[in-house]
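Repro case for the chain-ordering regression, as requested:
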Amino acid sequence: MSTIPLDYEALRLIWWLLLGVLLIGFAIMGGRDLGVGALLPFVARTDEERRVLLNLIGPTWEGNQVWLVLGGGAIFAAFPPLYAASFSGFYLAMIVILLALILRPVGFKFRGKISDPRWRATWDWALFIGGFVPALIMGVAVGNVLLGAPFHLDDTMRIFYTGNFFQLLMPFALLAGLVSLGMIVTQGAAVIAGRTEGVIAERARTYGSLAGLVTIVLFALGGLWVAMLNGHVVTSVIDPNGAINPLAKTVELVPGGWLRNYGTYPWMLAAPVIGFAGLALAVLSLRSGLKLLALLASSAGIFGIISTAGLSIFPFFLPSSTMPEAGLTLWDASSSHLTLFIMLLVTAFFLPIILVYTAFVFRVMRGTVTTESLGKNPNAY
Amino acid sequence: MIDMLVVDLSRWQFAATAMYHFIFVPLTLGLSFMMAIMESVYVMTGREIWRKATLFWGTLFGVNFAMGVATGIVMEFQFGMNWSYYSHYVGDVFGAPLAIEGLMAFFLEATFVGLFFFGWDRMSKLGHLVVTWLVAFGANFSALWILIANGWMQNPVGAKFNPDTMRMEITDFAAVLFNTVAQAKFVHTVSAGYVSGAMFVLAISALFLVKGKHVELAKRSAVVAASFGLASALSVVVLGDESGYVATEHQKMKIAAIEASFHTEAAPAPWTVLAIPGADGEPIWSFSIPWMGGIITTRSLNEELEGIHELVDRAEDRIRTGVIAYEALQQIRADGTDTAARAVFDEHWADLGYGLLLKRYRADIENATDAEIAMAAADTVPDVWPLFWTFRIMMGLGFFFIAFFGLWFYRASRGWIDTNKPLLWLTVLLLPTPWIAIESGWFIAEFGRQPWVVEGVLPTFYAASSLNVLDLVLSLSFFVLLYTVLLVIMVILMVRIIKAGPKEKLFTPDDEDDFVITTLPATPATKELVS
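-- result from build under test --
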């Protein structure tokens, strides 16, 4: 494909970055709503208080969730073997996430249609599950990626997964799940504290700064733990412009191997630094009532934490614990040269437009939401 | 060996989740355009009744949209979850339209749908109208990309198998986009969605009229629905029928199965209206209209319609060639520099999928017996009679909709909207019929494609993930249970919304009788009141 103006290696690297952008985009944007969902029963105690939170995120949560849908679509289009292996491998975990996510759109829409307190309380807990469970399980999945997933490939590229759901709940993976939950809750709290008043904002600041502190501690603990884990290191020469064939490489397991990239490329240390600094700043801003700064800092924290995970396992996406050479990297799990190029053109065209209209919608819906402001809109939640 | 129970359960799960999802999608497609039309009238005329109508139908739209989102999220992920070999094998081609759907369509729809509901008092009239149109276009663009993806499964153009990566790869993206099957399916599918939207509005308006409630709103809505419905019903039948079907070999098999045409008929073929199957599955009695079959399926009088037996014979030849391609592929996989094997593969790769049909019977397909090849060839015939009957249900309803909306359109143009009670009651009762036609249509499209998941390229049984039965039993039961509970709740809520009727006092304080916020944008005071 000599007519494609970007070489295969560059496109694979760009798509690795774009995947990061989409997943971080979901964690920052969708994380707002997941976090508010996870805090809903605690930060808001009465029906009116809960309506404030639901109407705070109600106008924008659907757009935010598309970051996840698009992330799934982008993995499918740009890294099909990764899409195939991760989603079929973590099958029951995915089912749990999906069942939780299914509760969200209906929870928002159905809750307000009947005023019976039992009806509303049921949907409040459904919305709690819809926020809490995905935030936790997605982190657990990332933890399992660092541990290596028990899958192997045959010569036809068919994937065989030999683990089960309960094996996913390893102590390290649960720790990763709590880090994920903690950062998402911090994000949700920053959103609430930024656009509500009174007791709701007060509780959000308390829960948010607590979650932020816990996340800092757990993230540090995770870093120490990773130093003891076996990292996967490619020991053969990979042709970054070659046809995909994961089984062509050799892989060695090295204790502390997931930290090797930071020795080779010290600039990568910026990622965990931003993770810690962002969370710390978010905690401080929440405590001192700096609304916008808290949200920005919390978003930076999310960016830092997810980048840390991605850079640590680079060039891997999904290492295999049972057949290390079958582990999928960005070099041997991508789409064809032409598909990556077409998808880059399409993304370069549409992503800026998406950012512009998303910003427009947030601007139109800006402002503080209070119990008095819920008003008579029949579409309000 | 392939576990056929896992394959069957995976198929049931996909069918269940897709068919649930497609209860809500058509209404989103149709209702969003009708809301945009009503709001356009409001903006042009300034008459409050049209805004009230937009808001009322919008409330029902919202409940339906939530279910569409809830069931849609599963669709994006279950290719990888349940069909991982499919995802690897064709992801290079199939993933692109799915991702573009997110970038171009779903993002637009989902971002602006929030403004549609919450932005009434925060935007100018015109601004909000633009938002409503963007939601409608987002929904319909979404359908376009999904049907480009689905059209490729029916007619896999613009791609070639790469022996080095063991998958289909894009060679011509424009061919994937402008796939004739995809274009025909898009028009057919969205038009069917518009018919469901029109029937929804018409049936509920008829109920209001028969009860003498909300008469002004119901009359206006009925006029919009009757005209929109007539145009859409014509479009479903005329623009998006079987014309795209004859593009490929297996589409011919699908047509032959739909028509229960076991032997090639001399052109122009008759069209079988009704038939009674015998013990061997072939018709023992049938009632046919001469020439009609040829006209419907080939759009000509001299092209012949091939029969199932003749198509099976051809499939057998292609399976034998497919085995040659498979052997060459094995040699290439063992030694990538084997140019002789590559030459053989290049000549025969298009039949590789037919060779894979033998994988159901043995792993070493190069040693397949004549009996196994005959069985694999027989597998290319989908189950005839379910297709035969669902097609006739769909087609009968399709023509009925033209007549029905035609009648309504005629009466509406004469101003006879609420004068015929039996017709109004009939209209209420007909509410579910578009969904029967639509679900039948998807059944014909997907069940008729069997045994292929990608026609001629990848057999369905070969595409499933290596999951175990317990995984699938759990996931299938959870989905069906949760979806069913939510569907029942949705129907109950819609009935309540309809019973409550359009709100008389939208956006107004309790002590006001009429609309106050007619001058937009809102003042800070009203903004605080209603946000």
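Ordering looks correct now. Chain A touches chain B through 81 residues (CB under 8 Å).
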